[in-house]
Specification:
heterodimer; A: alpha/beta; Rossmann fold; two-stranded antiparallel sheet; 9 helices; 7 strands; globular; B: alpha/beta; seven-stranded mixed sheet
C-alpha cells in the first residue's frame, strides 16, 4: 500500500500510536528519561522505519541497508520503541529501559549490542559528522546506501554541526538526508529565546544544502519531503520537520518542562489512553 | 647487546608519512583525512598516491573525528593526523564518544608533540596528549622513539589493532637509531640496554637521551636497563614489574607533562606491584615557549644529563 495514500497514512498513524504508548510505558517504568522530544520525533521515526529506510530487521547488519543515525541520543526511547515495533527485538524489552544490565541505555550505547542500533551517541553535535563519514565512504565505494540523520533543533547550536554541514555540501553528499525535529523548545525554553536559530532554512541553503520544510506530524507531508530528497543529485538534503514537543499528549504539548521528564505511572495510564485513540 | 647508533637525524613525522603510504599500499581500506596541514604532518605522500582515498575537511578537527568514525562504521580504516594539540584536545569529546565509546578502528595522529616543536611556541607544543588519550577506554596509545619506529607504528596500528589508536610523533629531525628488524609489537616494551642497577623507562624522543645516559653511566660502572615504551597503553606491566624487581630503582623520561604521562602510567603499575624509588624527567606543570628545539630541550631539562641526575637520585634513594 502506498503510504502516501489516505489508508497508508492511517497505518503509519497506528504504528506511531503504538510506538508512543511503548515510550510512555517504558519511561514510567524507568522513572526517568526524555518524554517531550521522544513524542515530537515519533512520527518522523515511524515514517523512516516503516516507509523510507531500506532495511531488514531480521538481518540488522545487512550491508545494503540504509543507515539511520540518531544524533540526539536523549530521545533514545523513541528509537528503541521504533526498532522494537519494526521487529529488531521483543517489545517487552522496552520495560528494561535505563535499568542495570539493559541493552536499552539512557543514551544509545553500541557496546550493549542492541540489534539495529547504528551509533552510540548522546553528546550533542556529533551524529551529523558520523553520517557524513558514512556517506563519503559509500561514495568512495560507489554504493548507493542512503544515510539519514536526526538532529534536535537545539542541537544546531553546537558549532560542530556546522562544520559537518559545510563538509557535506563540499563533498556533494546527495545520499545524505538530515532531519531536524524542529519543536522549537530546549531545556531553558524556546530556541529563539535561548539562542536563535532562524532563519534556519536560509542558513542551510547558504551552506549549499537542498533545504525542505514539512509538517513533522503529517505523514503525507513527511513522505513527500523524503521523496523530494531522492531527486537530489548533487547536494545533501535537510528536512526541517515542524513538530510539537510532547505531541499526542495534550496536557504536555509545547511545554518545555517535559523535555527531560518522565511521567508517573498514574500519569502514564492517562497518557497511554490518549495516544492510543 | 648491540650498541644502537644514530644513522642520521630524521623526523618521526617523516616516518609516520612513509608508514602511512606503505599501509595504504598494503591495505585498500586505509583512507586519510586532511585538516589543512597535510604536508606538515606527513600525510602528503599518501594524499598524492591515493587522491580518491584522501578526504580534505579543512580546519574543522571535531568534524574530522566524527567523519573518521562514520567511515570506520562503513568499513574503512581512517587515519586522521593533525597537530597533537588539536587532535587530542580540540576533539576530546568526539574522540571519547564517536570513537572510543563506539570502539572504532581509527588512527589519530598527533603531530608536533613536545617542546621540540620549537619556534611555534606553547600553543603548538602538545604536552598533555598522552595524559588525555590514555584515560579513554578502548584507546591504544603509541609513542614511537624515532622515524624508523614511527613507520612501523602506523603499520602496526593498521594491522594489529581493532579499536581507536592515538599515535604521537614529533616535527624536529632527531636521531634515527632503531632498526626495522626490531619490529613493532603493540603492548611490548623494548629492551635497548642491559642493566640491573636501575631502569630508565622512556618514550618518544627521550629514548635516545635515555640511551646516551645509559652509555655515560656505564663508563662509571653503573649499568642502567633502558626500556623503550612505544606503547603507553596497553602498558607492558610484566616488563615494568620485572625491571622494578631486578633493578630496584626507576627513572622515567618523556617529552610531556610528568602528571598523567608516562611517569604517571609507570608509577601506577610500580606502586601497585613492586614499589621502588622513582624519579621523573619531563615537563613539570608548565607550558613550553619559543626557541630552537634543542635549546628548549635543555631549558626544560629534557636531556641525557637530566636523566643522569635523576638516575643518581634514584640510586641514592635505593641505597638508603
Amino acid at each position: 500500500m502506498d503510504p502516501r495514500s489516505e489508508n497508508g497514512s492511517g497505518r503509519l498513524e497506528e504504528l506511531a500510536g503504538s510506538i508512543r504508548q511503548s515510550v510512555i510505558r517504558s519511561l514510567a517504568e524507568a522513572g526517568s528519561g526524555h518524554l517531550g522530544g521522544s513524542m515530537s520525533s515519533a512520527d518522523i521515526l515511524t515514517a523512516l522505519y516503516f516507509s523510507v529506510l531500506k532495511h531488514h530487521p531480521a538481518e540488522p547488519t545487512w550491508p545494503g541497508r540504509d543507515r539511520f543515525i540518531l544524533s540526539i541520543g536523549h530521545i533514545a526511547p523513541v528509537l528503541y520503541a521504533t526498532l522494537a515495533e519494526a521487529g529488531y527485538f521483543p517489545k517487552e524489552e522496552m520495560l528494561t529501559l535505563r535499568k542495570a544490565g539493559s541493552r536499552l541505555q539512557g543514551h544509545p550505547g553500541r557496546d550493549h549490542k542492541l540489534p539495529g542500533l547504528e551509533l552510540s551517541a548522546g553528546s550533542l553535535g556529533q551524529g551529523l559528522s558520523v553520517a557524513v563519514g558514512m556517506a563519503i565512504a559509500f561514495k568512495i565505494d560507489g554504493l548507493d546506501n542512503r544515510i539519514y540523520c536526526l538532529n534536535g533543533d537545539g542541537e544546531l547550536q553546537e558549532g560542530s554541526v556546522w562544520e559537518a554541514a559545510m563538509s557535506a555540501a563540499h563533498h556533494k553528499l546527495d545520499k545524505l538526508c538530515l532531519i531536524i525535529d524542529r519543536n522549537g523548545l530546549q531545556i531553558d525554553g524556546s530556541t529563539e529565546t535561548v539562542m536563535a536559530l532562524e532563519p534556519l532554512k536560509k542558513k542551510f541553503e547558504a551552506f549549499g544544502w537542498n533545504a525542505l520544510e514539512c509538517d513533522g506530524h503529517d505523514f503525507r507531508s513527511l513522505l513527500n519531503a523524503f521523496q523530494k530528497t531522492r531527486l537530489e543529485t548533487s547536494r545533501p538534503s535537510v528536512i526541517i520537520a515542524k513538530t510539537l514537543m510532547g505531541k499526542g499528549i495534550k496536557s504536555i504539548e509545547g511545554d518545555y518542562r517535559w523535555h527531560g521528564k518522565s511521567p508517573s505511572k498514574e500519569q502514564a495510564e492517562e497518557m497511554i489512553k490518549e495516544v492510543a485513540k | 647487546m648491540v650498541k644502537l647508533v644514530n644513522r642520521g637525524n630524521k623526523a618521526t613525522k617523516t616516518g609516520f608519512g612513509e608508514g602511512l603510504l606503505e599501509a595504504g599500499i598494503d591495505n585498500g581500506s586505509v583512507v586519510a583525512i586532511g585538516a589543512d596541514i597535510t604536508a606538515s604532518v606527513g600525510v602528503d605522500l599518501f594524499a598524492s598516491k591515493f587522491p580518491s582515498r584522501f578526504i580534505s575537511l579543512g580546519i574543522a578537527e571535531q568534524n574530522c573525528v566524527g567523519v573518521a568514525a562514520g567511515m570506520a562504521l562503513a568499513g574503512k580504516i581512517p587515519v586522521f593526523a593533525t597537530y597533537g594539540v588539536f587532535s587530542s584536545l580540540r576533539t576530546t569529546d568526539q574522540v571519547r564518544i564517536s570513537l572510543c565509546y563506539n570502539n572504532l578502528h581509527v588512527i589519530i595522529g598527533g603531530a608536533h608533540t613536545g617542546v621540540s616543536v620549537g619556534p611555534d611556541g606553547a600553543t603548538h607544543q602538545a604536552l598533555e596528549d598522552i595524559a588525555i588519550m590514555r584515560v579513554l577506554p578502548n584507546m591504544t596509545v603509541l609513542s614511537p622513539c624515532d622515524a624508523t619506529q614511527a613507520r612501523l607504528a602506523v603499520i602496526a596500528a593498521v594491522e594489529q589493532c581493532n579499536g581507536p589508536v592515538y599515535l604521537r610523533f614529533g616535527r624536529e629531525a632527531m636521531p634515527d637509531f632503531t632498526t626495522p628488524e626490531m619490529g613493532f609489537a603493540i603492548g611490548k616494551a623494548q629492551l635497548l640496554h642491559h642493566g640491573n642497577d636501575l631502569a630508565i623507562i622512556s618514550t618518544g624522543h627521550m629514548t635516545w637521551e635515555a640511551l646516551r645516559a645509559a652509555y655515560e653511566l656505564e663508563k662509571e660502572g653503573i649499568m642502567a636497563r633502558v626500556l623503550n615504551i612505544h606503547t603507553i597503553k596497553p602498558l607492558d606491566e610484566t616488563a615494568l614489574v620485572e625491571a622494578a624487581r631486578e633493578c630496584g630503582a626507576i627513572a622515567t623520561a618523556e617529552e610531556h607533562q610528568v602528571a598523567g604521562g608516562l611517569g604517571s602510567a609507570v608509577s601506577e603499575v610500580i606502586s601497585k606491584n613492586h614499589p621502588v624509588p622513582m624519579e621523573f624527567v619531563g615537563m613539570n606543570d608548565r607550558f613550553g615557549e619559543s626557541g630552537p628545539p634543542l635549546e628548549l630541550m635543555r631549558k626544560f631539562g629534557l636531556t641525557a644529563e637530566n636523566i643522569i641526575t635523576a638516575c643518581r637520585k634514584a640510586l641514592e634513594r635505593k641505597r638508603r
